[in-house]
Write a structure and sequence with these properties.
This is Attaching and effacing protein, pathogenesis factor. By secondary structure, this protein is mostly beta strands. It is 0% helix and 67% strand. The protein has a single domain, classed as Porin, CATH 2.40.160.160. A nine-stranded antiparallel β-sheet has the order 1-2-3-4-5-6-7-10-11, with no helix packed on it. A hairpin with a 2-residue loop joins β6 (80-91) and β7. The protein is globular, with a radius of gyration of 18 Å.
Length: 144
C-alpha cells in the first residue's frame, strides 16, 4: 500500500506556494519489519525542494517501534544537495528522532544577494514528542 500526503495551496495567481506531495512505499512489509522508500517534493519560500530516501522500521508487537533512515535532499531551485541519516523510536506516548546532515554540494553564487555565495549547512536535529499517560491532554512537543 502506498501512503501519500498532498497539500495544495493555490493563491489568486494560481501559484502552488507552500504546496507539497509526499509518498511512502513499503518495499518489504511484515508485522515486525518494514523496509521502505519515501519521496517528496515541496514548494516553500519560492524554492522547490525534493528528497528521496530509504528506511527500515522494526515493530515490537504493540509496544514500540525503532528505525533508521537515509535521505538525499535536493534544492531544485538552486542545485544544492545534502545527505541525511537518522534514527527514530516510538512508543504509545513518546516519539523520539534524531537526524544528521552533511552537505553534498559546495559554494554557489546566491541569486538573492550580490557578491554572495551559499551552500547547504551541515547539521543535526533532535525531536521529542510525548505526553504523560495519566494526563494525555498535557502533551509537549519541543524541537531542538
Amino acid at each position: 500500500m502506498v501512503l501519500a500526503r498532498v497539500k495544495l495551496n493555490v493563491d489568486k495567481e494560481f501559484s502552488l506556494k507552500d504546496s507539497s506531495l509526499e509518498m511512502l512505499y513499503p518495499i518489504y512489509d511484515t508485522p515486525t519489519n518494514m523496509l521502505f522508500t519515501q519521496g517528496a517534493i515541496h514548494r516553500t519560500d519560492d524554492r522547490t525542494q525534493s528528497n528521496i530516501g530509504f528506511g527500515w522500521r522494526h515493530f515490537s508487537g504493540n509496544d514500540w517501534m525503532a528505525g533508521v533512515n537515509t535521505f538525499i535532499d535536493h534544492d531544485l531551485s538552486r542545485s544544492h544537495t545534502r545527505i541525511g541519516v537518522g534514527a527514530e523510536y516510538w512508543r504509545d506516548y513518546l516519539k523520539l528522532s534524531a537526524n544528521g546532515y552533511i552537505r553534498a554540494s559546495g559554494w554557489k553564487k546566491s541569486p538573492d544577494v550580490e557578491d554572495y555565495q551559499e551552500r547547504p549547512a551541515n547539521g543535526w536535529d533532535i525531536r521529542a514528542e510525548g505526553y504523560l499517560p495519566a494526563w494525555p491532554a498535557a502533551w509537549r512537543k519541543p524541537d531542538v
